[in-house]
Amino acid sequence: MKTRSEGMRKAIDLYGSHHALADAVGVARSTVTLWSLGCNRPGPLDAIRIEGATGGAVRREDLLEIFDRTWAKRNVFGGGA
Are the CB atoms for 25 and 49 separated by under 8 Å? Predict the structure, then answer.
C-alpha cells in the first residue's frame, strides 16, 4: 500500500461500509469515518484489530508507521518474540 489512507479505504471496501467495519473492530462508525478522512488514525490496538478483522488483507503497518515486522510479531495478542 502506498499511503495509510489506502489501507483504511481497503478495510472499509472489504467490509462494504464504515458501519460494518466499525462493528467488526468494536468502535463507533464516526471513528471509522474520521480515520478514513485522515482526521485521526487508528491506535495500535485498533490497527491490530483491523488486521485481524480483514484476515490480514490490511496489515497493521499499512495503517500505522510505528509497526515493523519485528514489533508486529510481539503484539499483545500472543505473537511470539
Answer: yes
Give the distance from CA 26 to its chain's centroid. Answer: 12
pTM: 0.77
Domain ranges across the chain: 4-72
Rounded to the nearest 10 degrees, how much is the dihedral formed by the CA atoms of 67, 58, 4, 17? -140
Q: How far, in Å, CA of 58 to CA of 73, rounded? A: 16
Instruction: Identify the CATH class of 4-72.
Output: mainly alpha
> Could you report the per-residue pLDDT of 34-72, keeping only the tens digit for each?
998 888 889 999 999 999 999 999 999 888 877 665 555
Q: Which of 22, 6, 17, 19 is nearest to 57 (CA)?
A: 6
